[in-house]
Amino acid sequence: MSGSAFSLTLMVPKAGFAVTAGEPALGGMRAPELAHWFCPSCMSWVYTEPAGMDFVNVRATLLDDASWFAPFAETFTSEGLAWARTGAPKSYERFPSMDELGALLGAHAEWARARGWPAPSGG
Predict the structure, then answer these.
(1) Residue-wise over 10-36: b if at least 16 C-beta within 10 A, else e?
(2) Which is nearest to 8 in space by CA: 86, 82, 80, 67?
(3) Whole-number pLDDT of residue 123
(4) Residue 2: which residues within 8 A CB-CB, separation 6 or more?
């Protein structure tokens, strides 16, 4: 999904997300459980909609101001370059299991509140 050492996304509640300009195109890995949306002009990955989830993963680099953003968790480190680490407090060789997800979301809510960010929905 990315030609760089990182593929940085921001989880956003679906209710708080809208495409405000342009018309994204479905592309990338096609699977019933994931819909990857791209800019049809430059073919940059814009966001992903995981099926059955109440959030979308938006490319953090698309924010008008990303200076406040810091990663909380990094995944698939087993496939990454040894020197490419984000310094995120949570790190996983693959993706966290569904059993780990509840605790991870709770830890993220605490981490976000400590930074003065609004608590995520349900957190």
Answers:
(1) bbeeeeeeeeeeeeeeeeeeeeeeebb
(2) 86
(3) 42
(4) 45
Q: What is the DSSP string of 22-55?
A: S--EEEEEEETTEEEEE-TTT--EEEEEETT-SE
pLDDT class of 24 with cuts at 50, 70, 90: very high
Mean pLDDT (the chain, rounded) = 83
Residues in the chain: 123
Domain borders along the chain are 1-61, 70-123
Please enumerate in sequence order all residues whose Cβ is within 8 A of that of 103, keeping only pairs 6 or more positions apart, or say none: none
58-101 tens-digit pLDDT: 888 788 888 888 888 888 888 888 888 888 999 888 888 888 88
Residue 102 has pLDDT above 80, yes or no: yes
At 112, phi and psi to the nearest 5? Answer: -65, -45
* DSSP helix/strand/coil, 70: coil
